[in-house]
């Protein structure tokens, strides 16, 4: 009788976007030896991943930094795999030019109540505002049409590749939240998302899975064109130049490691959310070492 070892299944959740596809290319396409681990990948929009994380069904998952405030007892933040807006980030766009003050009385399409973009906008406007939930990839069309599912839409909070393509839809930029945050904090990047790992996996497994995630990120950065070609299939009409730019925005040295400044940014973002009454408790982020 031949004995066979059973591999440890790691279910991974990430967004169907060029940056996440680039990051997970090596793991998804067997370019690195995963040893006793078998990775399966589920590609789902970030707000759905945020919601699913409450049940802890995925061992490793992308989550919004905002959502982490509610998930910190279940998940720890991997030190690699972050999406940081370094002088750029989610944007609010409208059909016609308007001021930041004008937004306070507008109905804004948002991609999810647990997204970091939503928390950042609430901090930026310093008051509650009318909003309507719209899938992230339908927000630009909703702003163009002035409505979504019968609800009025005056402006839209855009994430992902919409940051590069909104002008092609004749929309006007009202605020770039990455710029706003950098000016507010004296140069910190805006912490948007991270890869989080379930704490109950145990220290040894957590360490090995994080090492494999780091290896996948490094493989993509060191084999950029190959990883970019794979990622382009998730580009939603981005051309090669735009996809390359978008990946460069969100898979970079911040992705390799939060570093001291990245950790400071996460801590400040969560603390500000609490101080403004937008988060239920003061969260000190826990990073896998």
Radius of gyration: 19 Å
Q: Give the overall average pLDDT.
A: 95
Helix content: 40-55%
**Bulk shape:** globular
Tally of domains: 2
CATH architecture of the largest domain: 3-Layer(aba) Sandwich
Largest sheet: 6 strands, mixed
Label the structural class. Answer: alpha/beta
Q: Return the string of H and E elements.
A: EHEHEHEEEHEHEHEEEHEHEHHHHH
What is shown here, in short?
The chain is of the alpha/beta class.
Q: What would your notes on this structure say?
A:
With 289 residues, this protein is of the alpha/beta class. The protein has 2 domains: 8-84 and 190-275, D-Maltodextrin-Binding Protein, domain 2 (3-Layer(aba) Sandwich); 91-185, D-Maltodextrin-Binding Protein, domain 2. Helices cover 42% and strands 20% of the residues. It is built from 13 helices and 13 strands. The protein has helices at 18-28, 46-53, 65-71, 100-103, 116-125, 139-145, 162-165, 177-185, 203-222, 224-231, 240-250, 253-256, 259-275, and strands spanning 8-14, 37-43, 60-64, 75-77, 83-85, 91-94, 108-110, 131-133, 147-148, 151-152, 155-158, 172-176, 190-198. The strands form 3 sheets. Strands 1, 2, 3, 4, 5 and 13 form a 6-stranded mixed β-sheet that branches. The protein has a 5-stranded mixed β-sheet with strand order 8-7-11-6-12, sandwiched between helices. A two-stranded antiparallel sheet has the order 9-10. α1 (18-28) packs across α9 (203-222) and α9 (203-222) packs across α10 (224-231). The protein is globular and about 60 Å long. It starts with 7 loop residues before the first strand and ends in a 14-residue tail after the last helix. The relative contact order is 0.20. The model has no long low-confidence stretch (mean pLDDT 95).
């Amino acid at each position: 009788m031949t004995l066979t070892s059973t591999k440890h299944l790691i279910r991974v959740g990430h967004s169907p976007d060029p940056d996440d596809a680039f990051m997970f290319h090596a793991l998804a396409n067997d370019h690195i030896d995963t040893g006793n681990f078998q990775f399966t990948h589920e590609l789902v929009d970030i707000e759905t991943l945020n919601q699913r994380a409450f049940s802890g069904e995925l061992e490793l998952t992308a989550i919004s930094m905002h959502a982490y405030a509610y998930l910190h007892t279940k998940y720890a933040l991997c030190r690699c795999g972050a999406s940081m807006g370094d002088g750029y980030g989610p944007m609010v766009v409208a059909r016609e030019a308007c001021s930041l003050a004008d937004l306070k009385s507008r109905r804004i399409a948002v991609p999810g109540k647990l997204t970091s973009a939503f928390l950042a906008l609430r901090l930026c406007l310093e008051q509650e505002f009318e909003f309507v939930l719209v899938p992230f990839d339908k927000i630009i069309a909703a702003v163009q049409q002035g409505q979504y599912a019968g609800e009025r839409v005056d402006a839209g909070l855009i994430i992902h590749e919409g940051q590069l393509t909104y002008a092609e839809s004749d929309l006007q930029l009202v605020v770039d939240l990455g710029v706003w945050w950098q000016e507010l904090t004296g140069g910190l990047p805006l912490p948007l998302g991270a890869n989080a790992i379930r704490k109950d996996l145990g220290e040894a497994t957590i360490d090995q899975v994080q090492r494999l995630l780091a290896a996948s990120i490094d493989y993509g950065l060191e084999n950029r064109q190959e990883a970019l070609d794979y990622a382009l299939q998730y580009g939603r009409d981005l051309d090669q130049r735009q996809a390359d730019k978008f990946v460069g925005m969100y898979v970079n040295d911040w992705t390799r490691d939060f570093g001291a400044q990245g950790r400071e940014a996460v801590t400040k973002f969560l603390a500000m959310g609490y101080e403004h009454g937008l988060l239920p408790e003061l969260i000190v982020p826990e990073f896998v070492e």
